[in-house]
């Protein structure tokens, strides 16, 4: 009966173990580095996008030349509140030309990430942000022969009404499609400057 040959165990050299360990550490370190760099860059980009959109200043989206015709009347002179003096009435047609500015409050804009390269931007109510270059013209006057007895019409007060927020709402309603288009273009340009691959969705108040 022959006896089994003894098994010879080969011992892995220390340098080989050290080399394998070094390779594993290098691979793991490289993966961690690039993963951290990738996710860090993605987080940094998100911060840039949010900060670029959430500005505190007013954003003027549209400046438009406008004109309002305002008919003004002054009641006839009243004698002791008993009857009106015939021919003392006043009437004026006032025309106001001005450059109206429309836009939004930048601090009220909200942005929400919807995916890796997708964001939703919520646009607040459009607002009347003031005017430039106002010109007031009296188009016509219709005054009675005794109109000198009646207080003159305050055309400046009427002009200020034409430039007020209430009167401007009519223009906002008329310009709404254009204002929405301008808002989309404005924020798309900003975000595309950070990353042109980002897609935006817009939601408008009102």
TrEMBL record:
Segments traversing the membrane: 14-35
Keywords associated with the record: Membrane, Transmembrane, Transmembrane helix
Top-level taxon in the UniProt lineage: Bacteria
Protein name per Swiss-Prot or TrEMBL: DUF4230 domain-containing protein
Species: Arenivirga flava
